[in-house]
Amino acid sequence: MQKRKVFISSVQSEFSAERQVLYDYLTTDALLGRFFEPFLFENVPALNAPPSAVFLNEVENSDIYIGIFGKNYGFEDAEGQSPTEREFDFATKENKTRFVYIKRVENRDEKENLLIKKAENVIVRRSFDTSEQLKTGVYASLVNYLFENESIRTTPFDATLHSEATINDLNEERIRKFAEVAHRKRSFPFDYDSPIVDVLTHLNLIKGDRVTNAALLLFADKPQRYFITSEVKCAHFHGFSVSKPIPSYQVFKGTVFEMINAAVDFVLSKINLYVGDRSKGVIVDTIYELPMQAVTEAIVNAVAHRDYTSNGSVQVMLFADRLEVANPGRLPVGLTIEQLYVAHNSIPANPLLAEALYLYGTIERMGTGTEDMAKRCVAIGLKLPLYSQSTEFRTILYRNNDNNDVPVTPPVTPPVTPPVTPPVAKLIDIFENEMGRQEIQIKLELADKKHFLQSYLQPAIEQKIIEMTIPDKPNSRLQKYRLTEKGIELKKILQKNNS
Predict the structure, then answer these.
(1) pLDDT of residue 333
(2) What is the pLDDT of residue 405?
(3) Which residues are CB-neighbours of 225 under 8 A, at least 6 positions away?
(4) Where in the chain are the domains?
(5) Quick one: CATH architecture of 238-398?
């Protein structure tokens, strides 16, 4: 976790003792020391640069400005301004969080009075008499800052009520479809026709008209409006390390369901797929070089357990020898890397998100995902996955170590009918008569048009599973799509297989 930098500003000669008290307090306190890194000019080594340049550079690189104003205005430069006022003005210009503390004194310099009035016009300031009172005031301000920025909280992030959003910011149709699927897969006590307030209340996602962060991530039209870093960045590299230009790179946004589906489709569309024949039935056996369930679990874990207050994003990177899935998050206290390879207690960072993903069928069981990933990979001859924790949590699934062009299982006779990818299978399943592009995307719950075209529609058209109703005018506003005879047959087979 990166610490927030705190710039302490004052007339040094007047507040030398208070400055050192604050510095020592912020570096040694059990709570504040975890989150903040104070700066004092006294601790800067000799530099070949004017002090004013060093001051303003440090203010720019800081997250929080603490101003201590007292009796003296301090040294004035050629323009008649003190370093303290310049620092305050610069912090204001840069939109820094500012906390100002005024010492109660008599016979204050007139310019210092003007500086205090300037500060009072833009922020709420506090007064103090002693160093102990200053320390208490700073502690209260910084703890409140941590709560406001969700760095510390009494409830998990996903269970916290959003400060602005209400139930009107949620998509009713998404909630109804969730209830329908959860009712069918997990015997959820509500279905499509149930009142959405009952569904959300049962899931602990609302309180009155206010909604939790989890509700927005699950059902808002544009969750990134509330959580800008809630996205999954996917990249495919042909080699063994990050290199530019990146052959394939996409950023997926939307609800957690949409991001997970898009990221899984991205990976599956770029790894080897081995196919069998119809010796065991009408459906062709297909085996991905990485177990599809393991790929899905790795991405689900990253999205469900990440730290949504971080400026980082979930990253999915496919290399020639491995798949890496990283997220800005940490293992729960008490859970070790070693325990991830065996059955362990489920301690999700975002329990409401995890529960919804389970009810929707995105994950099969709670607390066994990492163990299942390891077993599935080893079962088809791959190396044991690697889990690691540093500034982020990372899962690495290894592809075939010897030669990635050689399948894990011996190749078998090609099928009579080419197999379809999971995205195309989903597309076939939802098709009804003639449908427009937007209608199809809504049915698939896909917000990303580019991803829909690349992973769903274009492959289906190329395999002659879907055709245009106006083939001579592919970009016509009246363009619709329908299943071909081949597509109709495949839909019958898929429905029979799933029944």
Answers:
(1) 66
(2) 41
(3) none
(4) 4-148, 157-225, 238-398, 422-498
(5) 2-Layer Sandwich (3.30)
